[in-house]
Design goal:
The chain has 7 helices and no strands. By secondary structure, it is mainly alpha-helical. It folds into 2 domains: 85 residues, Hypothetical Protein Yqey, Chain: A, domain1; 51 residues, Arc Repressor Mutant, subunit A, CATH 1.10.10. It is globular.
């Protein structure tokens, strides 16, 4: 079953159970996916759906930080509930050791020798790590290895 189909099925289940917070989060997720499909004029596959989910997760984390700074615990709790729904669709995250092994393999496979080759290495890693690791942290590790 595709990820989009699983999200649609989960939305129907949330409607039947009258789980309003979960339903709201899933509707937000479906809207983000649909907006991306309309903007790009393509039907998203699982990788594209993962990118949309990853973007919502990052936005949610930023919102939580801002709400905590403003002392809005009610909004923090609501955002954390939505974040839990979004992350349930992401694959299991990789450990730091697993990411390091993939980085070493990518450097070896792309024959990267200097910091100039960083784009090649990150481009090679992105499809393998999408939704499973923070790409900003991965970029930092690649930069350390190539420096």
């Amino acid at each position: 079953m595709s990820l989009k189909q699983q999200i649609a099925d989960d939305m129907k289940a949330a409607m039947r159970m009258r789980d309003a917070p979960r339903l709201e989060a899933i509707r937000l997720l479906r809207a983000a996916i649909q907006r991306r499909e309309v903007d790009d004029r393509v039907e998203l596959d699982d990788a594209g759906v993962l990118q949309a989910i990853d973007k919502l997760v990052r936005q949610g984390q930023e919102s939580i930080a801002q709400f905590e700074g403003a002392g809005r615990t009610d909004l923090v709790a609501k955002e954390q509930a939505s974040l839990a729904v979004f992350t349930s669709y992401l694959p299991t995250p990789l450990t730091a050791a697993e990411v390091d092994v993939l980085i070493e393999a990518a450097i070896r496979d792309t024959q990267a020798a200097s910091i100039k080759d960083m784009g090649k290495v990150v481009g090679y890693l992105k499809p393998k790590l999408q939704g499973r690791a923070d790409m900003a942290a991965v970029s930092g590790r690649v930069k350390e290895r190539l420096a």
